[in-house]
Amino acid sequence: MIIDSHIHLDDKRYDEDLDEVLNRAREGGVKRFIIPGADPSTLDRAVEISEQNSDVYFAVGVHPYDMGSFNDLDFEKYVSHEKCVAIGECGLDYFRLEGSDEEKEAEKSRQKEVFIAQIELSKKYNKPLIVHIRDASRDSKELLLEYADNKIGGVLHCYNADEELLSLAKSGFYFGIGGVVTFKNAKKLLNVLPKIPQEKLIIETDGPYLTPAPHRGERNEPFYTTFVAQKMSELLDIPIKSVKNITTQNALELFHIS
Ligand SMILES: [Zn+2]
Ligand SMILES: [Zn+2]
């Protein structure tokens, strides 16, 4: 079995055929789905999908691109829901910074503030973090080491395959591997992947984004995690069955689901 630890099922692009998307995945062996919080305006949709499907869970959080909505989000209300398994996705994303150097610095500080606040919530509610990192490895690592709780930990998703982040494996952090691993130009990730301790590997789609080969360019969906598992099996030189067992065990442990 596979657990898709990061799938935006609340995205409009799944509205029309959600049941088919889920059933295709289930038939392919994907048995649990976690919807990360990103944009609070679709969070109620994530809750609804989790209530209608026993194998779907959700997280509550604010993505660095949606920071403006952080103060209006009632974390307590969502976190007390029985299907809420994590805080996130939250983190730092310096990829799209715009404006003058000063404006960029101000934006970075705001992102850090909102990230720290969510790390604090992860400790307050004893829920692991789903961390989004893009072009911000050093700052993200610093904040996680300073504020996060090793025993609660979390998963680093969408991370730039940066060696710098590897040491976080010792601080309770897992590494979400997705479609990028199938891209021919993903040299960094291909180099780093074998260095990640196997007990810290988990699988994700990040659908509808980052579709793996051979489906690049299409909408991503959880069934395609099978291509990710296949590629991991080749790269790590272990049977695909072991990839599925290991990553499933890791995800169950991190998110405290069964
Ligand atoms: Zn992300
Ligand atoms: Zn995401």
3D architecture notes:
The protein has 258 residues and is α/β, with parallel strands linked by helices. The chain has one domain: Metal-dependent hydrolases (TIM Barrel, Alpha-Beta Barrel). The chain is 37% helix and 16% strand. The protein has eight helices and eight strands, in the order E-H-E-H-E-H-E-H-E-H-E-E-H-E-H-H. The chain has helices spanning 18-27, 43-52, 75-79, 101-125, 137-147, 187-192, 225-236, 240-255, and strands at 2-4, 30-35, 56-60, 84-93, 129-134, 154-157, 173-177, 201-203. It has an eight-stranded parallel sheet. Helix 2 (43-52) links the parallel strand 2 and strand 3 (56-60). Helix 4 packs parallel to helix 5 and helix 7 packs across helix 8 (240-255). The longest helix has 25 residues, at 101-125. It is globular and about 45 Å long. It binds zinc ion (2 copies).
Structural class: alpha/beta
Q: Describe the global form.
A: globular
Q: Beta-sheet strand percentage?
A: 15-25%
Largest sheet: 8 strands, parallel
The named CATH superfamily? Metal-dependent hydrolases
Radius of gyration: 17 Å
Q: How many discrete structural domains?
A: 1
Helix percent band: 25-40%
CATH class type = Alpha Beta
Give the number of DSSP strands: 8
Write a compact overview of the structure shown.
The chain is α/β, with parallel strands linked by helices. 37% of the residues lie in helices and 16% in strands.
